[in-house]
From TrEMBL:
Keyword Protease: yes
Assigned protein family: Belongs to the peptidase M16 family.
UniProt-recorded name of the protein: Peptidase M16
Alphabetic keyword roster: Hydrolase, Metalloprotease, Protease, Signal, Zinc
Residue span, Peptidase M16 N-terminal domain: 36-181
Species of the source: Polaribacter reichenbachii
Length: 439
């Protein structure tokens, strides 16, 4: 009966996704090199305007970390035509909302407006690019904002530094060894001229992608884009030549301490290929197999059945140049970190040795079909995907076709990728401990 239910669910999802509306888009380049992607959907009177800059923490100088994230804040300070403190007021008075995010590879700014305010959004984003005011008062103000964010989200957050400690141990050469938020002493030491130089280098039209999606008239929007962005000068071409990591050939053992925790954690992390590879997608599936939901392998075994762990899971942290695959667990009762790692390793070995069941395989396919449908269910989701697929993957149409890559993944692929990457001699084992255990 269970197999029949799974088969029926798979059939429904297959029919739904096969007949789901294709995401239509148009893309082109302005003469200054800015890439433009338009998606028209007149089903609701909203429009989404986003600019996606190919600059992240990996682009910073080693002694000036945190610059990219700092600019996520700094470029809301104002422009020659927008006074300090007025940006958010302009957005809200037009019935909109917006924000920005930064990671190691990119910075993403976005606003959503009623569709009759598209011009406002385009003007704001062109002002950010053409007329930013970078002055000491803004730098000082945002320096305090960033410090408070670091205190809240990293320094005082339980397990807030686990990824930081994984990255600095698993990457020795590539700038992924740092953190997105950076070191505060580096920002304190940066001069105003250095902030201006960073802006001049990376915030140029040929390093940006503009997406306008929703209830728009494409002909009108094209004219507005040309009017607002067409005259912005092209910047110098950006060259990237990051050092390559040597393969990990023996287990790296490390410890980290956190004053905000009382329960230790064990983490096993593996350096894996870039997000653009099929193997990275297979690792996405392996993560779901191990840790999505209460019926997942690690939860059922270590939390539910054996009561060895309070929590356990798997994360495929995929990025533009490399990925980091992390398995983790928090022990319960008298369970040691070594015993918990052994329990996790047993499931890895099973995955490397045997094919997963047909039922588990179909469950994974169902999960990824569902994710695909949900990712294209809102204008905001579509806009973000269009930008990311173009900048990070070099293929905007993956918004329609990436699901075919997941569909092509076989049970044999899952076994072989586990055998290729998830081996003890290719990993970091990190004990993440309460500060009280530090000797």
């Amino acid at each position: 009966m269970k197999k029949s239910i799974l088969s029926f669910t798979a059939l429904v999802l297959f029919v739904f996704t096969t007949n789901a509306q294709k995401v239509e888009f148009e893309e082109y380049d302005l003469s200054n090199g800015m890439h433009v992607i338009l998606h028209q959907d007149n089903s609701a009177p909203v429009a989404f305007i986003a600019t996606y800059y190919h600059v992240g923490a990996k682009d910073e100088q080693p002694d000036r970390t945190g610059m990219a994230h700092f600019f996520e804040h700094l470029l809301f300070e104002g422009t020659k035509n927008i006074k300090r403190g007025e940006w958010d007021k302009i957005v809200s008075s037009a019935g909109g909302n917006g924000n920005a995010t930064t990671d190691d590879d990119r910075t993403y700014y976005y606003e959503q407006f009623p569709s009759n305010e598209v011009a406002t959004g385009l003007w704001l984003e062109s002002e950010r690019l053409l007329h930013p005011v970078i002055e000491q008062v803004g730098v000082d103000t945002q320096n305090e904002v960033v410090k408070e964010e670091k205190r809240l989200r990293v320094d005082n957050q339980p397990y807030g530094k686990f990824l930081e400690n994984v990255k600095k141990n698993i990457f020795k050469k590539h700038p992924y060894k740092g953190t997105t938020i950076g070191k505060m002493e580096h920002l304190d030491a940066a001069t105003l001229e250095e902030f201006k130089a960073f802006n001049k280098k990376f915030y140029v039209p040929n390093n940006g992608t503009l997406v306008v999606a929703g209830d728009i008239d494409k002909a009108e929007v094209k004219k507005m884009i040309q009017d607002y962005f067409g005259s912005i000068p092209r910047g110098a071409e950006i060259e990237r030549n990051f050092p390559k990591e040597d393969p990990i050939t023996e287990t790296i053992k490390a410890k980290a301490y956190d004053a905000n925790i009382s329960i230790p954690a064990i983490m096993a992390a593996y350096r894996t290929p870039a997000m653009t590879t099929k193997d990275s997608r297979v690792l996405d599936m392996i993560s779901s197999y191990f840790s999505t939901g209460r019926s997942s392998v690690l939860y059922k075994k270590l939390v539910d059945t054996k009561k060895m762990a309070l929590q356990t899971g798997a994360i495929n942290f995929s990025q533009e140049d490399y990925g980091t695959y992390i398995l983790f667990g928090l022990p319960q009762g008298e369970t040691s970190l070594d015993d918990l790692l052994e329990g996790i390793d047993e499931e890895i070995v099973k995955l490397q040795t045997n094919l997963i069941s047909e039922n588990d395989y179909q469950k994974l396919q169902n999960q990824f079909e569902n994710r695909f449908v949900n990712s294209n269910s809102t204008v905001q989701g579509i806009a973000g995907s269009l930008a990311e697929y173009y900048v990070m993957f070099g293929d905007t149409n993956l918004i329609n076709t990436e699901i075919d890559i997941f569909r092509s993944i076989s049970r044999e692929d899952i076994r072989e990728v586990a055998k290729k990457y998830l081996n003890p001699n290719q990993r970091l084992v990190l004990e993440y401990l309460p500060e009280s255990q530090k000797k």
